[in-house]
Amino acid sequence: MARYYRLPLRLITQGKWLRITHGAKAVLPVLGMHADDNGVCWPGVKLIQELTDLYHRDTIREATRSLISLDLIEKVRQGRRNVYYLKPPAITVGKSYYPMSEEFIKTHWKSLSYVEKAVFGVLAVKAAIEDPDWPDVPEGINLPPWAERLELGDDEDVFGHGEIQKKKWIRLAGVSFPSWNTAIEGLVNKDQIVLSGENDYIIRK
Questions:
Q1: In three state form, how does the secondary structure of the chain look?
Q2: Distance of CA 9 to the CA centre of its chain
Q3: What is the pLDDT of residue 196?
Q4: Number of domains, the chain
Q5: CATH number for the domain that contains residue 129
Q6: Domain that holds residue 193
Q7: Could you give the CA distance from residue 33 to residue 109 in angstroms, rounded to a whole number?
Q8: In a domain, 107, yes or no
């Protein structure tokens, strides 16, 4: 059975996404993907290292401390392992969330820069509450396979779309204007989003 981390809209809108460290943004989806229905998980350090761009134990500790400081997780030592308890709004409360799949976390999340992760989180959860009607796929640009299939009416690999509210969303991501622009360019180049208009985007699953 496929596993997901349901990245909640409330995590973004309540301002906690922008306040956690870059490392914490990398780690949280990994914890969430491994959590059971009660938000409990115990991935080891090596697994977290494999699924993030954090390679030192001290960096991972700093990331979890950031999550603990904002009351997003609780960490309990049980024997030789750490057990993590995700707490709202780090776990889904309500229906608006982005289903970050195990495949996405294993193959794409690690490759995103810190700023790209911050911006992607905002784009993802905001797309979750948009009108389900798909915009037209723009012509004259090279599209990733998942967007090419959308032209044929196949939306299996597409999650949603939205209209960027730049000033507001930059605040939610906790980045600067130049960093936002760099992140958007990076997400396009890494085939995570397609810009379908001046401020419109389509985002993959």
A1: CCCEEEEEHHHHHCCHHHHCCHHHHHHHHHHHHHCCCCCEECCCHHHHHHHCCCCCHHHHHHHHHHHHHCCCEEEEEECCEEEEEECCCCCCCCCCEEEEEHHHHHHCHHHCCHHHHHHHHHHHHHHCCCCCCCCCCCCCCCCCHHHHHHHCCCCCCEEEEEECCHHHHHHHHCCCHHHHHHHHHHHHHCCCEEECCCCEEEEEC
A2: 11
A3: 80
A4: 2
A5: 1.10.10
A6: 112-204
A7: 12
A8: no
Amino acid sitting at position 179: S
47-69 pLDDT per residue, tens:
999 999 899 999 999 999 999 99
Q: Do the beta carbons of residue 178 and residue 115 sit within 8 Å?
A: no
Q: Cα(27)–Cα(73) distance, rounded to whole angstroms?
A: 11
Which of 143, 155, 159 lies closest to 101, judged by CA? 159
The structure tokens 């976390």 sit at 105
Structure pTM? 0.89
Taken as a whole, the chain contains a residue count of 205
What residues contact 192, with CB distance under 8 A and at least 6 apart? Answer: 108, 112, 116, 120, 203, 204
All residue ranges of the chain with pLDDT < 50 are: none
In a domain, 92, yes or no: no
